[in-house]
Amino acid sequence: MKRPSVSATLLLVGAMTFATSCSTVTAHGGSLSEIVSSKTLVIGTNAEYPPFEYVSSSTNEPAGFDIDFCGLIADEIESEYGIALNVVVKNMEFDSLIGSMTTNQIDLIAAAFSITGERAKSVLFSDVYYQAQTVLVVKSGVTIDSTDDLANLTIGAQLGTIQADKASDYSGSVVTVAALDSLITMVQTGNIGALMVEGAVGENIVGKNSGLALIDSLDFNDDGGYGIATNLGEADLIGVVNKVIAVNKASGALETMYEDAVVAAASN
To answer: Which domain-ending residue is among 195, 215, 235?
Structure first.
């Protein structure tokens, strides 16, 4: 079945609103029955990882591939249960997402969230909806031919990300900071030798910051990809998410949505 366009999907969602992590909006920890009963779905994200999530310069609200994808999830819930769903997006620091999930402050994590065994001890993951690739952002002119070259290099990564864990496998000097913009500045000023990020994020950074380059030829033994997460035991909600993933992967809609998000983030 042909899915509606991103813009149409968001219109179908209806009252999509945005909030900070201190919002008093009530979430239900991923309980599908309570989401349907309250007609409210609360998404947790970290809106500084374009093209997956970022704050739109035109609306000053979270935007990006993951936000658009959540529109499809909300649309499916609306369709299955015949309700008009209020979708609230809470923007918070990346390393607070799991804690917010396990304390029922949100219903889903949608934040370029890598599926790992360690995280799966705390949250329930959906199927993979995007396959990630790890790259390095460096100053223009810097050459790194192999991962062995990283041993004596200071590597930066966003706090709480899979790259923060991965960087320590290759270097004994790793800097982790919550704000991605701060890490970009550290590369530009030479305070770190390289920034380890996801491929599309790296492309966005290099496209918007002169004097930086992308190294995407190294094999970092990447993880299994990105998934949407909820609380352990909330299989009903993840079942809906997996249905949305399967249908939209098969139709090509997810790929188109991703491509559109890349274009939109580049012009933001």
So the answer is: 215
Angle at 163 between CA 161 and CA 165, to 5 degrees: 85
Please give the structure tokens belonging to residue 82. 């015949």
Residue 21 has pLDDT above 80, yes or no: no
Instruction: Indicate if 26 and 90 belong to the same structural domain.
Output: yes
Domains: count for the chain: 2
Tell me whether residue 254 is in a domain.
Answer: yes
- The 8 Å CB, 24+ separation contacts for 119-123 are 119/229, 122/98, 122/232, 123/98, 123/229, 123/230, 123/231, 123/232
Q: Are residues 42 and 151 in the same domain?
A: no
Same domain, 199 and 248: no
Strands (E), 114-163: 123-125, 134-139, 155-158
Q: Which domain holds residue 23?
A: 6-130+224-266
Residue 45 φ/ψ, nearest 5 degrees: -145, 175
Helix (H) or strand (E) holding 72: helix 65-81
Residues 154-161, mean pLDDT to the nearest whole number: 94
Please indicate whether residue 171 or residue 11 has the higher confidence score (pLDDT): 171
CA-based radius of gyration for the chain: 18
154 located within any domain: yes
Q: How many helices (H) and strands (E) does the chain have?
A: 9, 14
* CB neighbour burial string for 82-115, b if at least 16 within 10 angstroms, e if fewer: eeebbbbbbbbbbebbbebbeebbbbbbbbbbbb
- Average pLDDT on 241-263 reads 96
* CATH number of the domain encompassing residue 260: 3.40.190.10
101-135 pLDDT, tens digit each? 999 999 999 999 999 999 999 999 999 999 888 99
pLDDT beyond 50 at 195: yes
In terms of domains, do 62 and 147 share one? no
In this structure, the answer to whether residues 120 and 237 fall within a common structural domain is yes
